[in-house]
Amino acid sequence: MIDAIVFIIVEAAKCKMSEQVSWRLVQQALLIIVLQDFLHHLSDMGIDESLQDDFSKVYSDIVDYSREMSFQLEHELPSFKSIDWRLDVQLGSRCLRGQCSPSLMMKVGVGSGKQMREHLLQAEISDVEKICNDLQAALQEAKSNHARKVTRLLK
Length: 155
Fold this sequence. Notes:
Layout: H1 2-14, H2 19-30, H3 35-44, H4 49-73, E1 79-90, E2 101-112, E3 115-124, H5 125-142, H6 145-154
Antiparallel strand pairs: 1-2, 2-3
């Protein structure tokens, strides 16, 4: 991959491109955009067709290498298995009469493959609401166009 980046920079220097243009080529190669879009950017910059062919070969090598590395680094994430919950309400104490304070106790089972671990969580209701809102925001972000594009390119 470093060889590919060096190749892009050297070829850009041979064509007397500015540092900004060569840096843009490297960034586009690292972002793993579609090959046709990459070639379109090269033609917009006024690069010869022979160099475009060389850049496309290097670009495909970078994409293949980065996909290979992402699959090697990928590991199995734990998944949700079970949940038990209990709502505790403290109706009062010696100091605070007539004031209730609810809390939620959860035992969450997560596992990957045959392994299963249980986690015990205790939280106030306001904290549970914040966690729910954060999870909803994460789910919405996973449905975004950018997340779908990244997922599609990594497959």
